[in-house]
Structure formats: C-alpha cells, structure tokens
Design the sequence.
C-alpha cells in the first residue's frame, strides 16, 4: 500500500502529472481499481484501518524507499 501511495505522491509532486490526488488517481489508464470498479466497492464499504493508516503516513511524508 505504501508503494502505491508513494507513486501517487511522487506524481502529485511532478510537473509531468496533475498536481492533485484525485486527478492523479483517476488519470485515464493509470490505476486499474479506478476503471474496474474495485476502488468504488472498497470505498462504499469504508477503507480498512491499514489503508487509512498508510494514507495518513503518505500524506505526512512517509515514502517506500524502493519506489
């Protein structure tokens, strides 16, 4: 999860990609869960503790070192 969050945060920071989370996440053809419906299914149930923890960490500056 942190690796994916790192990719997203790196793209937000890059001038080559949109400069906000939603635009990066929903950019056409980038992340399969946005176009196959799985992201919406997860969000409708509520994100898991691990997902929320990871997102908070990434928003706070945590990054996966291998990405």
Sequence:
């Amino acid at each position: 999860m942190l690796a994916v969050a790192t990719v997203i945060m790196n793209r937000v920071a890059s001038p080559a990609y949109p400069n906000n989370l939603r635009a990066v996440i929903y950019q056409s053809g980038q992340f399969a869960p946005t176009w196959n419906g799985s992201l919406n299914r997860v969000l409708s149930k509520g994100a898991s503790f691990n997902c929320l923890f990871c997102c908070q960490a990434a928003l706070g500056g945590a990054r996966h070192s291998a990405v």
Q: What stands out?
A: The mean pLDDT is 95.
